Amino acid sequence: MQPRNAKSPASATVVRGIRRAELPPLNLLYSFEAAARTLSFTHAATELFLTQSAVSRQIQQIESGLGTALFERRHRALALTEAGKVMQRAVNDCLERLRDATAIVRAAQAPRQVAITTTPGFASLWLIPRLARFTASHPSVDVRISATMDLLDLQRSGIDVSVRLSTISRGVGTALFEEQVLPVCAPQLLKNPALPLKKPADLARHTLLAIDTPQGQPLNIDWEPWFKVMGLPELRMKNTLRFTQYSDVVAAAVAGQGVAIGRLPLLDAMLRDGRLVAPFGSAASHFGYFVNVAPRSAGNADAQDFVRWLMAEAELAKTLEPGKSR
């Protein structure tokens, strides 16, 4: 038998909680908030996809439960009473807290992701071989790579980070590294005594491996900076193999099918491990890779980490000259 003053479990729960009768019906507070903000039942009804009369009845229901008026009904206008102003502050505060809590909970459940766009050559030859080091330190982050020559709008396409090749003088964003170019080929091609590669002019007896260029541009446009430095602006090679992607040009060079123009540091690893060799020195292409972050991703900590990782990898690459090992 319980003592006379003891509370039952049910009544204790009511004391610790909030009695539903102490609050206006919660579904009606949205109508009050809209009406108090716009000072118009008609505008509130439009926002809430209700009729004006429905909003008016809901406000009357709240006022009836409170026992006081929240609005002064004037000719073609509304004004908040003192009680209405008190309720407006309280309702706004509660709704803002709910919005903040909802955003926090949703963010905690949302997958962590970094989306990157770059050229196919940079993706396959430089980024992907290094990417495991980023994913190892960020195992909970999904990485999405869009490898395309198209210049994507970062905001519209949902991209966080772009890495793009541009002329040094017109580059936009943070410079990752400048590009050097030089002829590269398979080691067996360099050892062929019937087709020597002792001096730059010997290239005239070899097959040119090149990217298919837009109509009106010379086929060997990628070679022009190097030809100019070597004093060979008119050099024509024996024949040509053309490809739509630079990674295919490099694959053909590794297979011994001709000589390609190598882009450094994209091909540094292949020169270090001997898959490719460079019979001659390099020249500046006056191009470089630049990193940009979408404005909407400024608060994405994983995107910021990815950019810092890119910059660190670029600095590391500078310390590893072709021919040296890590």
Short overview:
The protein has 326 residues and is α/β, with parallel strands linked by helices.
Describe what this molecule looks like in 3D.
- With 326 residues, the protein is α/β, with parallel strands linked by helices.
- The protein has three domains: 11-108, Arc Repressor Mutant, subunit A (Orthogonal Bundle), CATH 1.10.10.10; 112-178 and 287-319, D-Maltodextrin-Binding Protein, domain 2 (3-Layer(aba) Sandwich), CATH 3.40.190.10; 180-285, D-Maltodextrin-Binding Protein, domain 2 (3-Layer(aba) Sandwich).
- The chain is built from twelve helices and ten strands.
- It has helices at 9-16, 29-38, 41-48, 52-66, 82-109, 120-137, 154-157, 187-190, 224-230, 246-254, 268-273, 301-319, and strands at residues 71-74, 77-80, 112-118, 141-147, 161-167, 174-184, 207-211, 239-243, 259-264, 283-293.
- It has an eight-stranded mixed β-sheet, with helices on both faces. The protein has a two-stranded antiparallel ribbon with strand order 1-2.
- It starts with 8 loop residues before the first helix and ends in a 7-residue tail after the last helix.
